[in-house]
Design goal:
The protein is an alpha/beta fold. The chain has 19 helices and 18 strands. The protein has 2 domains: 266 residues, TIM Barrel (Alpha-Beta Barrel); 195 residues, Rossmann fold, CATH 3.40.50.
């Protein structure tokens, strides 16, 4: 039976990241100290980092400080994280950082507030009042708790380092908390909070609770050493550690890129454990020029004389079907699409036959998106489907293709999707040949997004002397003569 931590484990694998994104609308980071500004702040961060987030962690204090409206915004933020999860096709847990701790009857009310009213998946709790104070939070195995074990504040040692008696003799109180947490974990939904600024304490807690998940805040602005924390806190199976980062992401110029870079840095430093499963490290996003060069080298762009579907003879041919024979380049291309898709809102990724189907599959696998594809012709047998894959009328699909020229094939696919009751707003391609597709789609109310444009590719190859100038000139002349007036 699934527990909170099996759910979390699946999300970590889905996003190849143990990164927990803190949602802390600190007054210093808001243009105005009100609930509306806090909501805008959190929604921006959720949208930017969802691809890389194993979990989101809103800190209730920043919302409570804004009064009743702040509490309403907290509920909206948790709901928004769920909506973004639906768009990604892989639900992202929300850990409500409230640090509650009270007698059992009061704890029951706190549990209803956190889980039923606000919709959080897990909470942080103080274990100071003992087992009965956390039991109301543990009754549902699908909900998780993280018990404060060894915090990073200066006064933590006043109590947490006191030596107390237990089954194994006298140990620091925080080690006793770790031992108790193991015995309380009967439903598989108990974890610990250990500050990332104290790797020595983290190592001791890991030794005392080798099987529990640990939430480790303090990487980034608080100065936690990433490599040391990973060495100290990772379980023997290569998992079990959730790293919380807040200000280092929210104050970055590009939070999404900062999250991607941090994710890659984390995975590059995860210590190797023989026999342990490993997370696939995604390649950092390519610069457009580097990707253009890779496509040229792979033969996906060719110069010569080629007859197009229209009957015209073109001096250039874009053959992205070759990507299926170069899996590493296909993965790079998928990453490039993801950088565009992360800013769009949709429920289904609609790849177009035939060249874009393997590309869309790679994008769906890396991004956790749910894919469909509209057929060129309806099946004459079986279900007679015109659209393959699961979908529901009323959902929004983003159309994904390899190349855009005039936009004709895009309209055919959009018509099939709309006939099935789906909405379409956006079309995403790898290369825009700049043959009028963007203008034609815009006139019909659709937006074209391209990773690369043929014009920019030609400029780069010309400047880098990767293509003979006479071939560049021939392509430009062809584009000028064949473009619609």
């Amino acid at each position: 039976m699934e527990t909170f931590f099996t759910f979390l484990e699946r999300r970590v694998q889905d996003c190849t990241s143990p990164l927990c994104v803190g949602l802390d609308p600190h007054p210093d980071d808001l243009p105005s100290a009100d609930a509306a500004a806090a909501l805008t702040f959190c929604l921006r961060l959720i949208r930017a980092t969802a691809r890389y987030a194993a979990a989101f962690k809103p800190n209730a204090a920043f919302f409570e400080a804004l009064g009743p409206e702040g509490w309403q915004v907290l509920a909206q933020v948790i709901a928004a994280a769920g909506q973004e999860s639906q768009r990604m096709g892989s639900r992202i847990p929300v850990i409500l950082d409230v640090k509650r701790g009270d007698i059992a009857s009061t704890a029951e009310a706190y549990a209803r507030s956190a889980f039923e009213l606000l919709g959080a998946d897990a909470v942080t709790l103080s274990p100071y009042l003992g087992r009965d104070s956390i039991e109301p939070f543990l009754s549902d195995r699908h909900k998780g708790v993280f018990l404060l074990c060894k915090t990073s504040n200066p006064g933590a040692a006043d109590l947490q380092d006191l030596r107390v008696g237990g089954p194994a003799g006298f140990v620091p109180l925080h080690i006793r908390v770790a031992q108790l947490a193991r015995s309380w974990n009967t439903h598989g939904n108990v974890g610990l909070v250990v500050g990332a600024t104290q790797p020595e304490s983290l190592a001791r807690v890991r030794a005392a609770a080798p099987d529990l998940w640990i939430l480790a805040p303090g990487i980034g602005a608080q100065g936690g050493d990433l490599a040391a924390v990973l060495r100290a806190g990772i379980r023997a199976d290569g998992s079990g550690l959730l790293l919380t980062v807040s200000r280092a992401l929210s104050r970055a110029d590009d939070p999404g890129r900062a999250a991607a870079d941090l994710r890659d840095e984390i995975l590059a430093q995860v210590p190797h454990r023989p026999g342990a499963p490993t997370l696939a490290v995604a390649r950092p996003l390519d610069e457009p020029d580097a990707l253009a060069d890779a496509l040229l080298e792979a033969g996906c762009v060719r110069f010569g004389e080629f007859k197009l579907k229209s009957g015209l003879i073109s001096p250039i041919y874009l053959d992205l079907r070759r990507l299926i024979s170069t899996p590493m380049l296909l993965a790079r291309v998928a990453q490039a699409y993801l950088a565009v898709l992360q800013d769009l809102h949709f429920e289904r990724l609609a790849g177009l036959p035939y060249a874009a189907i393997p590309i869309a599959t790679a994008v769906a696998l890396q991004g956790g998106y749910r894919m469909i594809y509209p057929r060129k012709e309806a099946k004459a047998h079986g279900t007679g489907a015109e659209i393959e894959g699961e979908y529901h009328p009323g959902e929004t699909a983003v159309v994904l293709d390899d190349v855009a020229t005039t936009g004709g094939s895009k309209f055919e696919a959009i018509d099939r999707l709309r006939a099935a009751g789906m909405a379409v707003r956006d079309v995403v391609v790898l290369i825009d040949r700049q043959g009028g597709a963007a203008e034609a789609l815009a006139a019909a109310g659709y937006r074209l997004h391209a990773v690369l444009t043929l014009g920019r590719m030609l400029e780069h190859w010309e400047a880098a002397r990767r293509v003979p100038p006479e071939q560049i000139a021939a392509v430009r002349q062809f584009l000028a003569e064949s473009s619609p007036e």
